[in-house]
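Retro notes, item 3 of 5
We never archived the inputs for the phosphoenolpyruvate complex last cycle. Fixing that now. Sequence and ligand:
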Amino acid sequence: MRRKLAAGNWKMNGDAALLAELGTLAEHQNANGPQIIICPPAPLLSRAHEITKDSPVDIGGQDCHAATSGAHTGDVAASMIADTGATSVIVGHSERRGDHGETNAEIRAKAQAAWAANLTAIICIGESEAERTGPDTLDVIAAQLDASVPDGATGENTVIAYEPIWAIGTGRVPTLDQIIETHDMIRTKLTDRFGKTGNAFRILYGGSVKPTNAAEIFTAENVDGALVGGASLKAADFQPIIDALDAS
Ligand code: PEP
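Structure as it came back at the time:
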């Protein structure tokens, strides 16, 4: 039985007002519902943890460096994220892959760094619009999955987030059939590679999840939750998504 998970990626947004939203969100959760992880920008991690530490809401980072320390100005090590009280970190988000040229090999190394710091790695994969309309969509996603997930991944130390790049922040989402087909393929690839353990990985869908489309997306058997950007910034938007997941 996989615990459902709603993860919120604040991206480069966040201030005291948004932390107040987090307090509202934390107050309304019950420990038996889906797991909830909020990923604020690195400077807000400690304050976010202070606000949520007595609630069922967990805190995560948005990225980490693969190294444990050193001359990497502006970067953050996984152990530093863990030190704030966070319990997970997103790696390989398409905005990191695009803005910073991150490769699958780097993302693998970041996931291993996350594990070494006792963080769960939320590894993102997903196709571009050209790849979605091309003939090899599932092969492209499968290759990215293989190359981004290190050996040693388990359902405890790793979450997979399938996020079509063309759906992020655009208001466009794949059809339910496309989501089902892609998540089923990811599940099969995970069980082919990791055996029975492959059934324990949570697979999140991400890309323009809103209160209006969440319930339909969560009907898919291998959708174990969502990674949510824009709609995680307001408790009033994120809560109905959490409720739809809880009811699914
Ligand atoms: C994301 O940033 O991971 C994301 C899915 O964003 P949005 O929900 O805004 O499309």
